[in-house]
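Long-time lurker, first post. I've been practising inverse folding by hand and with some scripts of my own, and I keep getting stuck on stretches where the structure tokens seem ambiguous. Below is the full token string for one chain I'm working on. Before anyone asks, I'm not after the true native sequence, just a reasonable design that respects the backbone. If someone could post their per-position residues I'd love to compare against what I wrote down in my notebook.
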């Protein structure tokens, strides 16, 4: 931390310097008194050169007092933190200091304990502001935005590391999270990485996301690197981002020494991960290692496969069609077919079915293909992917409209919906419903998409949140903790997260709005 002291009395200036240098904080962190000035005007001249993070200033000085000095700093260097150190405990001075947006108002002689606390608090704030500034620059580099002029200088100051590594990983969607423990936030991931003993002193970690929200990037600024150390860091990153029970795959870049290469490196990682992801497999891909070449033969569907679909559709034999599609997934699993080729095959299926049914609008066709991509990316097994793909195709092309037994589905979905409504306070999962009603996950998913237009998780979440809103409206005095338990959320913080995701407002804000109305 770079500190400037401004005081027209050398005794107090030297005393404060001694307190700072003898503090426990200075023994732990790199602290430097970069300037000692006897007037505000002298300090203003020195600021552009010494670039302090923190300024301690007296309040009563000749020509310009500390309040006026703080106001000028706020206007010209808003990132610099100012603390008033005064021999006067006057309320008027303290009030003026607050208006000048100073961090704190201390009375001489300074208490070393207060200085210790202030340095710790200031360091935390500086670290966060520095991280956010660096994160913003990295986002611009990731999106390949041009960085010119003074920002180039800032870039060099913010990223002085000898080596950089990028780790690309798949991010779970919010609705995936609802079936398991909530995933860590970016801030939580950053905190765990920053405190990891594998990172040396002054080495940095940043986490940023692409605009599509499907991929996350962890960037490490290192002073020492080696294959073994990078592999250990990769193992730690997998453990951290998989903290919620997921099994993530990651791709790890080669070392590079110019942070301006980030866009190019991130794209290469993104493509490599996209090409190598396999359902149900957790992979760690190092670009520094030779990657296996993928044998494409027999992985992509052919005209022979199209004929099989045509025969089943012409006969309206949906059991045969389902058997064909599930058999393909079994073959792909046997060859560990990457997601990329399954997505291509899924789009091919949609095109073949569309040729026969001719029912899809162009926008619906595009949406269906995107849903297929999401199903394959989030699937934990090939059989799970096959069931969800069949469920989607059955819903889009309405296969069951030709099935005489479809009326049974109406009675069954009514029974399941009634059960969910009556047992919202219980822990309910798809597996629980499948066991209770003796129904497969495919059939269950198909029923909810057809009759409710939502997935099982979406429907259950909507029921729970609507019940919470109803309780807030009818019983405004009821504590939120009790509401969360009645609606099936034992974790109050998770309830708040889901409620805000669905309604756009926290439970507290929603409740306050009801009271105002």
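-- Answer (accepted) --
I ran through it position by position. Result:
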């Amino acid at each position: 931390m770079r500190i400037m002291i401004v005081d027209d009395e050398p005794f107090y200036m030297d005393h404060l310097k001694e307190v700072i240098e003898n503090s426990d904080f200075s023994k732990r962190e790199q602290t430097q008194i970069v300037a000692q000035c006897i007037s505000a005007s002298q300090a203003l001249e020195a600021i552009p050169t010494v670039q302090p993070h923190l300024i301690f200033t007296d309040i009563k000085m000749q020509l310009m007092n500390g309040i006026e000095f703080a106001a000028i700093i706020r206007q010209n260097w808003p990132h610099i933190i100012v603390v008033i150190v005064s021999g006067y405990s006057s309320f008027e001075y303290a009030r003026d200091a607050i208006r000048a947006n100073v961090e704190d108002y201390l009375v001489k002689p300074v208490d070393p304990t207060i200085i210790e606390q202030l340095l710790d608090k200031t360091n935390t704030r500086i670290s966060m502001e520095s991280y956010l500034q660096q994160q913003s620059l990295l986002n611009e580099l990731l999106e390949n935005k041009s960085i010119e002029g003074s920002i180039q200088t800032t870039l060099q100051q913010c990223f002085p590391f000898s080596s950089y590594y990028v780790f690309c990983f798949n991010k779970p969607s919010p609705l995936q999270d609802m079936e398991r423990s909530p995933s860590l936030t970016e801030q939580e991931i950053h905190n765990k990485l920053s405190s990891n003993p594998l990172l040396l002193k002054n080495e940095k970690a940043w986490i940023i996301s692409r605009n599509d929200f499907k991929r996350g990037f962890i960037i490490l600024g290192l002073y020492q690197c080696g294959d073994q150390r990078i592999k250990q860091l990769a193992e730690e990153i997998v453990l951290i981002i998989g903290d919620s029970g997921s099994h993530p795959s990651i791709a790890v870049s080669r070392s590079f020494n110019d942070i301006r290469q980030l866009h190019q490196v991130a794209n290469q990682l993104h493509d490599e991960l996209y090409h190598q992801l396999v359902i149900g497999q957790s992979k760690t891909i190092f670009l520094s290692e030779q990657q296996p070449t993928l044998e494409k033969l027999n992985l992509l569907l052919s005209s022979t496969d199209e004929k099989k679909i045509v025969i089943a559709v012409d006969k309206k034999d949906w059991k045969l069609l389902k058997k064909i599609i599930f058999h393909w997934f079994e073959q792909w699993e046997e060859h560990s077919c990457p997601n990329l080729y399954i997505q291509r095959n899924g789009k091919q299926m949609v095109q073949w079915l569309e040729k026969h049914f001719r029912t899809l609008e162009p926008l619906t066709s595009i949406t269906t293909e995107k849903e297929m991509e999401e199903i394959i990316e989030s699937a934990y097994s090939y059989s799970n992917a096959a069931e969800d793909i069949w469920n989607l195709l059955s819903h889009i092309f309405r296969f069951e409209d030709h099935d005489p037994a479809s009326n049974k589905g109406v009675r069954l979905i009514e029974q399941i919906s009634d059960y969910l409504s009556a047992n919202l306070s219980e822990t309910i999962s798809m597996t629980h419903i499948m066991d209770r009603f003796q129904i497969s996950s495919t059939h269950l998913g198909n029923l909810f998409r057809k009759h409710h237009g939502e997935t099982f998780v979406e429907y259950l979440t909507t029921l729970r949140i609507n019940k919470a809103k109803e309780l807030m409206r009818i019983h405004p005095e009821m504590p939120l903790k009790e509401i969360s338990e009645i609606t099936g959320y034992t974790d109050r913080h998770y309830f708040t997260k889901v409620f805000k995701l669905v309604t756009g407002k926290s439970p507290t804000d929603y409740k306050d709005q009801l009271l105002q109305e």
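A couple of notes from the structure itself: Residues 164 and 221 are 5 Å apart (CA to CA). The radius of gyration is 30 Å. Happy to go over any region you disagree with.
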